[in-house]
Structures are given as C-alpha cells and as structure tokens.
Amino acid sequence: MSEIYESPEILSEYLLFHYGTPEEILPGDREWPAGMRDALDFPVRTVGHFSSTSVSRGLDLGCAVGRSACEMTRTCDEVLGIDFSHAFIRAAGLLKEGNPVPYERCEEAARTTRLVARIPMGIDGGRLLFRQGDAMNLPEDLGAFDRVHAANLICRLLDPTRLLERLPSLVKPGGELVLATPCTWLEEFTPRNHWPVTNTLDWLSARLERDFSLLRSTDEPFLIRETARKFQWTTSLVTVWHRS
Ligand SMILES: C[S@@+](CC[C@H](N)C(=O)[O-])C[C@H]1O[C@@H](n2cnc3c(N)ncnc32)[C@H](O)[C@@H]1O
C-alpha cells in the first residue's frame, strides 16, 4: 500500500483541499480561471448526490481528513469514516473533537504559510467516528449502512474488486451508494491486471448491477493546490446507485 498519504506535505494538501476557504486556496492577489473556482468544495459536492432525507448510518470509505464524513452528518445520525492513512485519521479525529489543526500551505520551495483547519460550522462532531482501516479488508462486524460514500478511492486500491464485492453487504436494501473516481489508474497503486479492461463506468456497472441500479452518472471537477502556482485540476466520474 502506498505510503504517500502519511507524509506531512500530503496531509497539508488534503487539509487545505477539504477545509480551506476559497481565499486560502485561490488567494485574491491573482486572477484565476473560473473553472478553478468551480472545482472548489469537491468533498461537499459528492455528498450532495445523496438524497436529502434523514437516515441512521453513513459510511465514508477512503475518507482522508474527513470533510465528506462531516457533511454526511447533516442527514445521518452517525457516520463512520475509514481511511488507511494513520496521519489522515489522526487529523480527522482531532477535528471532530473540536480541535484546531495547524498545517503549512506550500507557496514554493521551502516557503510556506501557516493555516489552521477547523470542523465546519453546524457539524456535530459527536455524530462522527473515524477509524484507520483497509477498504479491501473491512471488519466482518461493520454492519450495514443507509449511505456509503467512496470518493477517489477505487483507483487507489491494490485490488478494487475486493471492495466492489463487499459493497452489497455494506449498503442496506433501499440504501444509497456514491462512488466517485477520476479513473486515474496507475501501477503505483493498482497492478495493471486489476485495471478495468473496458471503460470504468462499464466495468463498475458489470460488477454492481446485480445488486444496485444506477440512478445517474455525472462529472465533478476537483482542485488540489500543490504550490502557489501548481494545482491538480481533475474531473471525477460520480456514479449514484440504489441498493435493490
Ligand atoms: C485520492 S485520496 C481521496 C480522499 C477523499 N475521499 C477525497 O475525495 O478527498 C485516496 C484516499 O484513499 C485512502 N486509501 C488508499 N488505500 C486505502 C485502503 N486500502 N483502504 C482505505 N483507504 C485507503 C488514502 O489514504 C486516501 O485518503
């Protein structure tokens, strides 16, 4: 499993990605293309694909530093966030307890700006639980959830099929599943023999359609700031599924 998600630099990038204000990500001292602004708030927008009714249990797999799990608590009584990175889960745990988490935004070279991440207004940290774990080898006693969210996770797994095979037992009948993936299949994370042979949407459908119906698929852009002048602008394929 890749160690990159344990590094302080990537932890800072994700704290900014999940909790940074628009001004912290795209400071007003420069003109930014409108498409960059449209790509902000990805961890909030993916959760917006669930229906708005209130339910009991939510699960966010590959939750990173926890922003989407926070957003899921607005309509779920309790949300469990699981991520393989100890560093990410430690930060998410501190945030949910109401602690400010300081981090360094990289400007260039060794120049950084100190920022602070905080749990967003209106989020009840008491509804959140974060656990380090492996999405391909989840505990048997996890139970079933009304909503399962996994954003930009499957193409970071060694063997994504192991998660896809577990999903029918993780989502309650009538429940919802939101899967987002930028389809950036890389040998660094996933051996080539575990990549989709067809396009990712057809590959997902072939594996899920026995237990889920596809409600819709769409694209959501996201923006990860690496330095003051270097950003990842990527489009994630978001699929929304209903558990039959
Ligand atoms: C590209 S990031 C996406 C994070 C977050 N969902 C988002 O959209 O910002 C991939 C995440 O998956 C986590 N991850 C990678 N392999 C994992 C595994 N086997 N089990 C659980 N999480 C894993 C990484 O630690 C990282 O937080």
Can you describe this structure?
- With 244 residues, the chain is an alpha/beta fold.
- It is 26% helix and 33% strand.
- The chain has eight helices and nine strands.
- The chain has helices at residues 8-19, 22-25, 34-38, 42-47, 67-72, 86-96, 160-170, 200-208; strands spanning 55-61, 76-83, 101-108, 111-117, 128-132, 145-151, 171-181, 212-225, 231-243.
- Strands 5-2-1-6-7-9-8 form a seven-stranded mixed β-sheet. Strands 3-4 form a two-stranded antiparallel sheet.
- Helix 5 links the parallel strand 1 (55-61) and strand 2.
- It is globular.
- It starts with 7 loop residues before the first helix and ends with a strand.
- The protein binds S-adenosylmethionine.
Q: What is the radius of gyration computed over CA atoms, rounded to a whole number of angstroms? A: 17 Å
How many strands appear in the DSSP assignment?
9
- Biggest sheet overview: 7 strands, mixed
Helix proportion: 25-40%
